[in-house]
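User: My collaborator sent over this chain with a note saying "see what the structure looks like." That's all I know about it. Can you take a look?
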Amino acid sequence: MGVYGFFHDAGALNPVVGPLVYQMPSDGSSVPADQLVYYGAALQSPRVVAKQKDAPGVNQLQVSVADSSPGSGHETTAVTFSDTSDFTGKIAGDPMDLGVEILDGPGGLVPIYVRFRDATMTQGNSVEISIQVLDVAEYDQ
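Assistant: Without extra context I'll predict from the sequence alone. Here is the result:
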């Protein structure tokens, strides 16, 4: 696999490399910081579907939050996903459905609005929280 991933732009020209970076206020206040990323493939590739034994392409692909160091730093509830810039009714820490399949190329990219709310009030870099799409399989179009 490897051609599917996260991008900073709708043209799939700028892949997300490393963690998403958020600039938080230095005064210790906690305001949400939003970022728009896209998931898909920049190049021609087989379609991607949720990996399942019986019927590929039936279950939803999901973007979710991963915590490499649970119990320290930020919790997964610091991240909220939305398919629009309106986060009303979205639950922090919950995964977001992306559809049952994602086609290749910039036209197939799925927009993901990511809201981060810092609850630690600690200055510095935190890299324990990441976003991911798991259990995917590629099939010819």
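A starting point for your reply to your collaborator: The beta strands are 4-7, 33-41, 47-50, 61-67, 79-82, 96-99, 101-102, 110-116, 129-133, 136-139.
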